[in-house]
Amino acid sequence: MLQELFLLEEERRNLGMLFLLGAVAGLIGFLAAYLFFPSRLAVISVVFASVPLIFSLTKQFMKDEENHVPHVPEIKMYFAIFAGETSTFFSLAMFTDASFGPQRTVLGLSSSAVSDAGFQSVLMNNLGVFFVALLLALVIGSAGAFVLTWNASVLGVFLAEIASTDPFLALSYIPHASLEMIGFITAGLSGTLVSAAIYRKDFSRDRWMNYVRLILLGLLFVLLGAFVETA
Q1: Nearest to residue 135, comparing CAs of 87, 190, 191?
Q2: Tens of pLDDT along 43-99?
Q3: Domain ranges of the chain
Q4: Rg (CA), the chain
Q5: Nearest 5°: CA angle at 90, between 136 and 74?
Q6: Among candidates 199, 152, 177, 153, which has minimal Cα distance to 58?
Q7: CA separation for the pair 217, 70 (Å, rounded)
Q8: In terms of C-beta density within 10 A (0-12 exposed, 13-18 middle, 19 or more buried), how is residue 17 classed?
C-alpha cells in the first residue's frame, strides 16, 4: 500500500505528503529490521525503507522521461522524500539505542578526510561522491531508492551525533548539507536519464544537451555546498 501512496503523491507533486511518506517509510523499515534482523539493523533498515520507493520512483521517473517532462520537479520530489527519511533516521539515532555502526563508520571516514579541510579538499571529496552516484545510476539504472535512503540514514545519524552535544551546531550543517544532497540527487537523476536514453537509442542532440545542463546544475549545487561549508 505504501508504494501506491508514494506513486499517487508523486503524480500530484505533493511535496509535503512525500516528506511524510519518506518519514513513514524510514520508520517502517527500521521496525521491520528490528523485528526480523536485529543483528543487521543499521543496513537492513535502509533496505526495507527503500523498498516502497523502488517501484514508484522508477515508474514515475520513466513516465516523465518518456514525456519529456522537465526534471526540476523530480529533484524536488526526491529531496522531499530524502528530507523525510533523514528526519526519521535523525530521531532514531537520537532517541533509541540503535548503534547505526555502518553509518558511523562512514562518518568517521568522511570526517577524517575533510576535517578542518579547506574549500578544495571539501570540494574534491564531494565531487567524488557526485560522480560515484552518477556512474552507479548510469550502470544500474534507477538505483536512486537505496542510494537516497542510505544517504538519508548517514546524514540523519550525523546530525544526531552533533545535536546530542550541540543542537545549534547541528542546525548550522543543514544549509550546506542540503545543497550537497541536492547535487547528489541530481547526479542520480542524470545518470538514470542517460541510461534510459541509451536504452531507447535516443541520441538526439537537444536531449543530450539537456542532460549535460542537468549534470552541470548538480555540479553547481556541489560547488555551492562546498563554498557554504568552508566560508
Answers
A1: 191
A2: 999 999 998 888 887 777 777 666 666 577 778 888 999 999 999 999 999 999 888
A3: 2-230
A4: 17
A5: 45
A6: 199
A7: 13
A8: middle
